[in-house]
């Protein structure tokens, strides 16, 4: 990211003095979809694209913000119970309020920021924004006394209370806890996590954005969640001696016991979730051995399950996955909730250029527009740049 870009705008729009520069990344999720609300594992990592902000306390109670991307300026009092109306500024307002609730003596500050996280690519620009300001406020006003997990939860609470999005914790977690060259297995139930090496020499990681609008919210999402909960309910009825909370607690044998009761659709959806739980653990083992071929195989299996069993793919994403297969890509799958967005692809260096060119030409010929291509590198989480 461009430090001079944020610094020049900060100097221009404020008092000519400089402040501290902070950066928080967006994220990818290598594998582990629709596992969060089923008590399972996700496997994210921070990337080399995110939000960068220059911030300086201004000795008042007023927060003054300038969005470089939107060319918009907003200011508000930290104690204003309503906060700003501009949706982008409410992220910063919410984070400031949540950090204050954690005991940080948040005062007014000036800030200019910009981002290079592609919008609509499922890389969580909003979580990067929240994490950047939470980290900065903790550094400037809290003497770094607030724990990283509390920074994560402050970002999540901002989404819930001030934006109206009932998100999970993966996005903020990846942005705050990310490490260069490492992915993280996060247990969505216990919040326990572990780092795994991701240094795929001879491979590139690239997202290909179909530019199809993501529309998982509402009924499609709820239907799938209800399917999973119904299967758990039926398994629990057969085994009252055990405590079942989510599909995480269920076995393959128990799923087969209720197949006739729950019906084909619910069975297929639960079958995907149990398979995805196993695939995440298999990828962990493979990465510790440096076995990227197995990682890629599991990615393809996840796509097949999301497409055929969980039914959250779309024609365009299946086509991008097909192009990856015929080009000999090591691994490819839908990244995110589905019904649009990106595929994430693990590609050997020697076929990378041909694959990207083929994907652009064939996709454009079929759908009338080229997909967008975003190479990513697993990078450091929230940090002070200077």
Automatic annotation (TrEMBL):
Q: What is its EC number?
A: 2.7.1.6
Q: What class of enzyme is it?
A: transferase
Q: Which residues form the Galactokinase N-terminal domain?
A: 9-57
Domain (GHMP kinase C-terminal) ranges: 286-350
Q: Where is the GHMP kinase N-terminal domain?
A: 90-179
Name this polypeptide is given: Galactokinase
Native source species: Prevotella herbatica
The entry's keywords: ATP-binding, Carbohydrate metabolism, Galactose metabolism, Kinase, Nucleotide-binding, Transferase
Transferase keyword on record: yes
SUPFAM superfamilies to which the protein is assigned, alphabetical? GHMP Kinase, C-terminal domain, Ribosomal protein S5 domain 2-like
* UniProt-listed NCBIfam families: gal_kin
Q: Coiled coil where? A: none
PANTHER family, per database record:
GALACTOKINASE-RELATED, MEVALONATE KINASE/GALACTOKINASE
